[in-house]
Amino acid sequence: MYYFGIRIRRNREYVDVTRNATVVQAVNAVFNADWTAAQGGNQRAPAYAHRVLVLSPGTSAAQLLQVIDQPGPIDVESEELGPYAPILDALAAKGRNLRMILPASINAKDKRAVAFLREHGCRVRLLSKKPLYMHAKMIAGKSLAFIGSENFTQTSLDNNREMGLLLNGSDIGKLQTQFDKDWARAG
């Protein structure tokens, strides 16, 4: 059971509601490890959670690069871009095969990153804050997609606790349908 492209209050978000026991178990294990650590314990997210989830710190940058580097075009929505070279270079390498939406309120660093992407032929649009703020983090290609909380910044990928999922199959079509609506709105 999936819900994509939902509007939570005034934000664009992507949410996956699943009954997949492996995913649910991994999310619970990460929560319990983080809860224990917050209470002064010394518990880390189990290794298997990194195989099931796109999880940072740890494995998220490599998994995002896998989605970005898949053959063919990709669509990306993100609240932040950042100057994180591995992600930015992979996006730039897509050239005309990249369509990206960011909020119109991006900071100066993100504006420089957008200029860099446009110099490489990438298509980037900025979405006005009203009626909908771009808070979503999504990458969709022909065979693989990502949704999650990870911004494409070094802080988000290497330091913060962030979580996402890799998706495939019919889920990708649902993501791309919503992206196309947002792309037209960002015009």
Fold topology:
Layout: E1 3-8, E2 11-15, H1 21-38, H2 47-52, E3 54-56, H3 60-68, E4 74-77, H4 85-93, E5 98-103, H5 108-119, E6 123-127, E7 133-134, E8 138-140, E9 145-148, H6 154-159, E10 162-167, H7 170-186
Parallel strand pairs: 2-7, 4-5, 5-6
Antiparallel strand pairs: 1-2, 3-10, 4-8, 8-9, 9-10
Helix pairs in contact: 3-4
Q: Give the full name of the CATH homologous superfamily.
A: Endonuclease Chain A
For the residues shown, what is the average pLDDT? 87
Q: How many structural domains are formed by the residues?
A: 1
**Largest sheet report:** 7 strands, mixed
Strand content: 15-25%
Q: How is the CATH topology named?
A: Endonuclease, Chain A
Fraction of residues in helix: 40-55%
Which regions have little confidence, pLDDT < 50, spanning 5+ residues? none
Query: How far is it from the N-terminal to the C-terminal residue, by CA?
Result: 31 Å
Q: How many H/I helices?
A: 7
Using only C-alpha atoms, the radius of gyration works out to 16 Å
CATH architectural label: 2-Layer Sandwich
Class per helix and strand makeup: alpha/beta
Number of strands: 10
What is the string of SSEs from the N terminus onward?
Answer: EEHHEHEHEHEEEEHEH
Strand order of the largest sheet: 3-10-9-8-4-5-6
What spatial form do the alpha-carbon principal axes imply? globular
What is the C-level CATH assignment? Alpha Beta
InterPro entries: PLD-like_dom (IPR025202)
Domain Phospholipase D-like: 88-183
Pfam family, one: PLDc_2
Protein name: Phospholipase D-like domain-containing protein
